[in-house]
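Bumping with the actual sequence this time:
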Amino acid sequence: MIRAYILFWTGSTISFLGTRATAIAYPLLALAILESPVAAGLIASVGMVPYLVLYLPGGVYVDRRDARSLMLGAETARLATALAMVAVVATGEPGFAALSPAAAISVLLGGTLLIAIASVTASGVRP
């Protein structure tokens, strides 16, 4: 039991750090590549929209699904998104059309993950 708890919280902490790092990295990447503060601000804004839209319906969705499967799926999809962005940056200069969906998808999956973590945590605590 204690090993599973330690693994869960270690993974959650690493995931949270990655979520916060991408929230900073995408706007900075947009600023560096597009050389436009407006584009960087829009990328940051696009990255926050899923949080506003996702939380209420996302909570209902997570409660009706297996939280562990959702967490694994969200993390796998976030990894695929990050690797796709690395490939796009390595092969050429990505434009706003590539950065904004990647930022939104990353935040959308991160929000799903945070809701699933809250669900798992709540189900593991006895009243």
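The tokens above came from a reply further down the thread. Residues 2-122 form one domain.
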